[in-house]
Amino acid sequence: MSEYQYVEFQAIDRPLNDKQFEFAQQQSSRAEVSRRSLTVEYHYSSFNGDIDGLLRNGFDVFLLYSNYGPREIRLRLPDGSPFEKHVWSKFVDGEGLKWSKDVKGKGGILALSPYDESSDLESIWDFPQSVDAAIQVRERLMAGDLRALYLLWLCAADDDNNDPDETIEPPVPHGMAESPVHSEMLLTFFGLDTLLLKAAAEGVENAPASVSQDKILEDWAWSLSAERSKSLLTRFLVEDSQVIKAETIAEIREAQSPIAWPTTEKKRTFSQLLEICKALRSNETVIRKREADAKAKRDAAKAEKERQARMKEMVASPATWLTKAEKMADARGTNNYKAAADILADLREAVGGEEGDKIARRHASLLAKKYPTLNQLKASLRKRGLLD
Fold first, then answer.
1. Are 131 and 103 in contact (CB under 8 A)?
2. Residue extents of the structural domains in the chain
3. What is the pLDDT of residues 116-163, one digit of tens each?
4. Contact status, residue 153 vs residue 169, Cβ threshold 8 Å
5. CB 202, CB 291: distance < 8 Å
6. Nearby residues of 194 by Cβ (< 8 Å), 6 or more positions away
């Protein structure tokens, strides 16, 4: 398999201005660049542009995928960490998950790049879904959702430079069991089992209503005056809604105190989390098999009921069903040949005795003579005992 690399940048909060757009165009002659995105793919080559430079010049999210090893996301946080330093430092190790602060201001870039020496991760081709997952994680981080930071730690912990028996998890945020679907997408992108979230949630409480982002936004919206509400709605309708949303959420963050997200100290190793995940996956497999077996049994019972009803119709009008079998053979195709053989076999059973066998075999013989080159048709008929 040839080496392949895919790179995508997304400008979420606002489109690139002229200067930023010009800078982006200079980073790769092969990239497709717009005011909102930069995408490029390589075979036997790689992106050599200024990743952090792009993130500090208009872009907010970066994703890199390769089928030979490196996978990475970087998130631009313009207002810096929404968490207190003593909280943040327990999750960001400076290696697999690294924070690079801007020279000026509060902003910086959070980079997730676990090292995978084996390069045997399962291929991922749904890049829009993976990029969307990164965008959603950034949004949750900026809103002060500590579960998003724990999710990034999980991805960073699966690093070949880390000893899983010595890598201790940070305090577990409450509500891990309620993590959104895009959390699973990010785990999948980095080759991890999605049940790791459920493993992390074992023995941890649900998130309280006080940390619900929806509730915080709702309370803020209800606090607005009628005049401010009308003004904001007008801006959403006539200006760039994405820009207005980013500015509004930033305003809400500024008005809020940092969220004191409740946590539980479990102090499990990454190995223990993987073992819990393995047990959960085993149970899940058993449950899924049981469900699949039950569904197969229901489907078989339904099919048999329909077959019995069909055979009653066959007894009343054998000629009609002989015509149907011939039409199925005329339509060609493996499935149609099988359907024709099934009709004749059911007709034999419906009529019963020597007469049923005689009718079905005679018609099978006529089909074989009519289509002497259709070996798959004849094979289907032989399989049902209709041809010698």
1. no
2. 4-285, 317-383
3. 876 678 888 889 999 999 999 999 999 889 999 999 999 999 988 889
4. yes
5. no
6. 184, 187, 188
Is the pLDDT assigned to residue 255 strictly greater than 70? no
Q: In degrees, to the nearest 5, what angle opens at C-alpha 99 toward C-alphas 93 and 102? A: 155
Q: Return d(Cα 388, Cα 384) in angstroms, integer.
A: 10
Tokens, residue 237 = 């309708």
**Residue position matching structure tokens 């870039």:** 109
Edge-to-edge strand ranges of the sheet holding 71-77: 32-33, 37-43, 4-10, 61-66, 71-77, 108-112, 97-101
User: Where residue 216 falls among pLDDT bands split at 50, 70, 90?
Assistant: low
CA-based nearest residue to 8, from 145, 146, 130: 130
Choose the weakest-confidence range: 19-33, 221-235, 296-310: 221-235
Dist. CA 110–CA 74, nearest whole Å: 6
The token duo for 68 is 């030979």
CA 187/CA 190 separation, integer angstroms: 5
Q: Do 257 and 216 form a contact (C-beta atoms < 8 A)?
A: no
- Which ranges of the chain would DSSP assign to H, the alpha helix? 18-25, 51-55, 85-88, 127-142, 146-157, 181-189, 196-201, 213-222, 226-238, 241-255, 270-316, 318-331, 334-351, 353-370, 375-383
- Distance of alpha carbon 83 from alpha carbon 147, whole angstroms: 12
- pLDDT tens digit sequence for 351-385: 888 888 888 899 888 988 888 888 998 899 899 88
